[in-house]
Design goal:
The strands form four sheets. Strands 9-8-18-17-14-15 form a six-stranded antiparallel sheet, with no helix packed on it. The chain has a five-stranded mixed sheet with strand order 11-10-12-13-16, with no helix packed on it. The chain has seven helices and 18 strands. It has a domain of 97 residues: Tumour Suppressor Smad4 (Sandwich). It is an alpha+beta fold and 309 residues long. Helices cover 24% and strands 26% of the residues. About 6% of the residues have low confidence. The chain is globular.
């Protein structure tokens, strides 16, 4: 349970499919943090609105179209579980790098972590208050690590050789959240380590053998592009591209190319104006980079989830 509820600093109210927190003391509300929340482009947060309820500040959270992580867990396989955890860690890293917000005021309870069921994008609940849910960042990270370890050990549908190894890594105090995120995505981390998403598991099939799709995570409407050729160009100018993205003017006319060879997919930045990223790593122009199921591709400032299958 949220420690602020336990200490009676806030009271929780269900509001249909949404929910809210009502403050016991209005002076604990931090207007600066609230303004930062409202200003976040491509936000990793559940939308929050400040209202008044019987003279008390009410923080109202809009969760339409999202499902709680807790409610999704029984139907998840190991691959989907790891994809959601990777997106969760990505959001946490974004908050740590923000400079204006604190991980200590993220409600990390699984029933308060929200997921887009179509893309597995994660949205966090943030409380802009002077009272903190967690005493420090270590307490916050220990809470999420411990919770994930218990899930992996307690639910057979997500317990595989990959998730069991990931559980061991979660318990390894020398690995940071950034290291764990890199290991899930197959990037570089301290001490190396395996990739957990998009690789062959015990009893599994060959990764990358299916059709690849990229699904927009922060578009004004659902955008999904299916890669139908071994060499597939993506950008905003139809005459130059196989797949067109027209909702973001910052994406170049011919932005990137996805290639498939021998069951492996790669992405190449075509000297775009605003860059191509894979799991937050900016690509060098004209240099192919491997992509796997669950990876997050960023074109300019728009994120897309990779789905292979």
């Amino acid at each position: 349970m949220n420690a602020l509820i336990e200490k009676n600093y806030i009271k929780e109210m269900e509001c249909g499919s949404n929910f809210s927190f009502v403050l016991s003391d209005n002076s604990t509300f931090l207007s600066t943090e609230y303004k930062v929340l409202q200003s976040q482009a491509n936000s990793c947060f559940v939308k929050c609105m400040k209202m008044m309820f019987n003279g008390k500040v009410q923080l109202y959270y809009l969760t339409k179209g999202l499902k709680s992580f807790e409610s999704m867990i029984p139907a998840l396989d190991a691959e989907s579980f790891l994809t959601i955890v990777a997106n969760l860690f990505s959001d946490i890293i974004d908050v740590k790098q923000n400079g204006f917000l604190s991980c200590q005021n993220i409600d990390i309870a699984f029933e308060r972590i929200y997921v887009d069921p179509a893309t597995h994008k994660v949205s966090l609940v943030y409380l802009p208050l002077s009272k903190r849910i967690y005493d420090d960042n270590s307490s916050f990270e220990n809470e999420i690590r411990t919770g994930l370890v218990k899930l992996i050990s307690g639910i057979s549908t997500i317990s595989t050789s990959k998730t069991i190894q990931f559980s061991a890594d979660l318990s390894n105090g020398t690995l940071s959240i950034e290291d764990l995120f890199a290991r899930i995505r197959g990037g570089k981390s301290i001490g190396g380590g395996q990739s957990y998403i998009g690789q062959t598991d015990v009893g599994g099939g060959k990764a990358g053998s299916g059709l690849l799709r990229i699904i927009a995570m922060n578009a004004p409407s659902r955008v999904e592009i299916t890669i139908t050729k071994d060499e597939f160009v993506i950008g905003k100018k139809a005459e130059l591209c196989d797949g067109v993205i027209d909702f973001n003017k910052m994406i170049s006319r011919s932005h990137c190319r996805i290639n498939k060879r021998g069951g492996q997919h790669t992405i190449t930045d075509l000297q775009s104006a605003n860059g191509t990223y894979v799991n937050k790593v900016k690509l060098q122009p004209n240099k192919p980079y491997p992509i796997n199921n669950g990876d997050v591709i960023r074109l300019a400032n728009s994120d897309f989830q990779v789905s292979i299958g």
